[in-house]
Amino acid sequence: MDNLPIILMILLVSNLIQSTFSFGGALVAIPLLVMYMDVSSAAVLLTMMSLTISTYIVITSWRTIDLTSATALVVSSSIGIPIGVYFVVFAEESITKSLLAISIALFAVTNLLKVFESVRPNPKVALVFGFISGLFGGAYNISGPPVVMYGVLSGWSPEKFRTTIQSFALKTNLFAFLTHYMAGNVTEVVWHYYYYSLPILIMCMWLGGYIHQRIPAADYRKYINLILIVLSMNLIWSVL
């Protein structure tokens, strides 16, 4: 616990990003947290905090959730997860992650250039994105990007984007937490860090909502695409 002040500062920044944009907090937290705690504890701690954030946002803003898309994403990702767990045994991780990273980067850049600004997918396409999310979630614990990409492509308003993504994240985080719990990874040390960080987490949930409401829709989409580009670069870095 000697590094508690540093860890709390990392969590402050990452949870604020997560609360504002519904994803991207782990991009900041994981590379820094692993310098002060083991990878397993860092992953569990972030899962617990993300679960808290997604639960809060869904409960307080459930009326703006795109229920049709959220249901399709959750159901199809649940089908993809076990296939991804099986697939990872045969797939070359570096190649698969690199292809995902390139796809995310190209998608984000074309969105920033407004190449597909007028394109809106059929709601049934959510089944495809959800399935792909489940594949990568089961294989590499990377379930977020395909769902975020679908939200951007669908042209959701910032509020609908935030709540729908978090409704999907609620299921993902709950599943991940239960898996960690049954594996014995939710240790006393992790609970201590979680309790100490609760005041920061509560502040970030409120402040993230405040910032979110004041970001213009056009700028919000730019920030989402920039975060996707950073995520793609992070994926490339992880396989080098």
Describe the structure concisely:
About 80% of the residues lie in helices and about 0% in strands. The chain has ten helices and no strands. The mean pLDDT is about 85.
Unreliable segments (pLDDT under 50, ≥5 consecutive)?
Answer: none
Helix content: over 70%
Taking all Cα atoms into account, the compactness measure Rg is 17 Å
Question: In terms of structural class, how would the helical and strand content be classed?
Answer: mainly alpha
For the residues shown, what is the average pLDDT?
A: 85
Q: Span between N and C termini?
A: 32 Å
Number of helices: 10
Characterize the main sheet. none
Strand content: under 5%
Task: Tell the overall outline.
Answer: globular
Q: What's the count of strands?
A: 0
Helix and strand pattern: HHHHHHHHHH
Give an account of the 3D structure.
- With 240 residues, the protein is mainly α.
- The model has no long low-confidence stretch (mean pLDDT 85).
- The radius of gyration is 17 Å and the shape is globular.
- The chain is built from ten helices and no strands.
- It is 80% helix and 0% strand.
- The chain has helices spanning 4-21, 25-33, 39-61, 67-87, 93-112, 125-140, 144-153, 158-182, 188-213, 217-239.
Keywords:
single chain, 240 residues, mainly alpha, globular
Sequence-ordered SSE layout with sheet pairings:
Layout: H1 4-21, H2 25-33, H3 39-61, H4 67-87, H5 93-112, H6 125-140, H7 144-153, H8 158-182, H9 188-213, H10 217-239
Helix pairs in contact: 1-2, 1-3, 1-9, 2-3, 3-8, 3-9, 4-6, 4-8, 5-7, 5-10, 6-7, 7-8
